[in-house]
Amino acid sequence: MGQTARAALKKIARLADPRRAIASRWFFKTGKGEYGEGDKFLGVNNPTLRLLSRDFQGLPLVEIKKLLRNSFHEIRQLGLFILVRQFERSSEPEKKRIYDFYLGHTDAINNWDLVDCSAHKIIGAYLWQRDKKILYKLARSKNLWERRIAIISTFYFIKNKKSSVALDIARILRSDKEDIIRKAVGWMLREIGKNCGQGVEEKFLQKYYAELPRVTLRYAIERFPKPKIRAYLLGNFR
User: Fold this and answer.
1) Cα–Cα distance, 152 to 122 (Å, whole number)
2) What is the pLDDT of residues 29-39, one digit of tens each?
3) Distance of CA 22 to the CA centre of its chain
């Protein structure tokens, strides 16, 4: 089968599961006024999509664009899985092309799982030894998914034992009104504690304690010892 978006669409259509699709619409909050409002699902699971991405890992960017412009969530996710595979196997000039392409299609990366499967693996990896100003711009975007891209991209740095940029982005987003961003900030703070030292995480938590939403705090301290969790929830950490 050829390396075209049409071929990928035919293959994924045969894997559709209507019952799973119904559950996915609920799980990804597609109702009116919810963050995934109007998104459509075929009902194909992630392991299947990852396997399928191997079959189409040579898909040109012009064809991947067709996947990202598709109205079905899993088809956009397939496009992102393919992009990640290509990025990880590319030369530096090709990595730049994929990085630019990704930033040019953030409107299609419009749910938390789409961001989380790709942002740190493409944006974070590309920016590792480069200027990171774009993350600060994304963190101040009106688009909540661009803000999530900003914080999740820093996961690459965190896993490489560098926390400064992640802490900067967490500071910018510390009082974000969107629950989906608050959870992401808490998650990255927790990962900072795991990878860069709990003391680094706690210094941030204590400095901004009064400004952090409860959900951010709960995500951040999830792996603390139980007595310390209670202390933070009660504000008795000093």
Assistant:
1) 11
2) 999 989 999 99
3) 23
User: Which residue range forms the structural domain that includes residue 61?
Assistant: 1-109
**Structure tokens given for 168:** 């900067």
* Residue 145's CATH number: 1.25.10.90
Please give the model's pTM, rounded to 2 decimal places.
0.95
- Residues with Cβ within 8 Å of residue 227, at least 6 apart in sequence: none
| pLDDT beneath 70: ranges in the chain | 1-2, 238
| pLDDT the model gives residue 2 | 61
CB atoms within 10 A of CB 178: 15
Residue 122 and residue 238 in one domain? yes
Bridge partners, residue 40, by sequence: 72
**Domain stops at, among 48, 78, 109:** 109
Nearest to 151 by CA among 140, 161, 142: 140
- For the chain, helix (H) and strand (E) counts, in that order, are 17, 0
Q: Do residues 169 and 85 share a domain?
A: no
Structurally, the chain folds into a number of domains equal to: 2
Q: Check whether residue 201 and residue 237 sit in a common domain.
A: yes
Q: Give the chain's length.
A: 238
Query: 233, 176, 183, 179: which is closest to 209 by C-alpha?
Result: 233
